[in-house]
Amino acid sequence: METFFGSVLVCVAALVLDRWLGEPARWHPLVGFGRWAAGVERYLNPSAGPVPSPGHRILRGLVAVCLVVAPVLLVAGWLVSALPQPLLWLAEVAGLWLALSLRGLAEHGQAVAQALHAGDLARARQLVGRIVSRNAQALDDRGVAAAATESMLENGADAVFASLFWYLVAGLPGVLLHRMINTLDAMWGYRNDRFLYFGRVAARLDDAMNWLPARLTALTYAALGHSRLALHCWRRQAAAWDSPNAGPVMASGAGALGVTLGGPAPYAGGLKPRPLLGSGPAATAATVEAAIRLIQRGAGLWLVVLLVLATIARWLATGAPQ
């Protein structure tokens, strides 16, 4: 029980650090991890030479994941076993803080919203192009607002709630493993000739690790918005989305906000058909801001629930007063 109470305090401290400091402007560990992963990928998945069979490319992708992830997990495991408790607590706070991106997410979304409020569509397209993979230059103001809102909702699940979940479940190794797999999926999880097979292991691991956190996120969005509509959209629309985890998150989020998201979107390869999510008017700059507030309130709700559960568990463990 004391361990759970301590883990909850680590979550509180990490979110406070994220609020005060945001992401490191320089020397973020994920940047170095991304470079290491890119080097491994270039070696095991070269663009030139004979094309291996699909099975061989999947095997290479598995080897790449192991090579990239194993060193970090070994270090994390050593820290957990070797550090005295006060230093381990500090390491866990730092690790979870670096895995979280609540303030950074809000700053990216707010910048897009401000450009839209100012009527600067060119600037809004430029900014949203930094956080989504679609062709931002082909978006109108509603398309930019929808793209930014979808990014807020989906990344809220990946970079906030899933990080908290995996820390609580598996400590420092758990949160680091999730963040690494999520990053590898973002780098290799494309359905194109280069990554269709090589990135499949990373993509499937990301799906597996995010399955429960995504549904807890969808439930969080529903609890804090238009609850009945969010649950209805989740139940009716999520299965039609091409991602088993983004579907529930974005359908519930769109319903909670009372807007319509999804629909056809322009990508480098052309217009991609996508189902509609949510119900209500089209997204605007105000919708992006509402999505940010929804995620922030969701993080607050998680902390309140965790603190209540930890307090009850501690009280029960020590014995109720007679």
UniProtKB/TrEMBL annotation:
Q: Where in the cell is it found?
A: Cell membrane
Domain of life of the organism encoding this protein:
Bacteria
Is Membrane included in the keywords of this UniProt record?
yes
Q: Which UniProt keywords apply?
A: Cell membrane, Cobalamin biosynthesis, Membrane, Transmembrane, Transmembrane helix
Q: Where are the transmembrane segments?
A: 58-80, 87-106, 159-177, 299-317
What Gene Ontology molecular function terms does this protein carry?
A: ABC-type vitamin B12 transporter activity; threonine-phosphate decarboxylase activity
Q: Which GO terms describe its biological process?
A: cobalamin biosynthetic process
- UniProt similarity note: Belongs to the CobD/CbiB family.
Biological function: Converts cobyric acid to cobinamide by the addition of aminopropanol on the F carboxylic group.
Name recorded for this polypeptide: Cobalamin biosynthesis protein CobD
Report the source organism. Marinobacter profundi
Taxon lineage = Bacteria, Pseudomonadati, Pseudomonadota, Gammaproteobacteria, Pseudomonadales
Q: By which gene is this protein encoded?
A: cobD
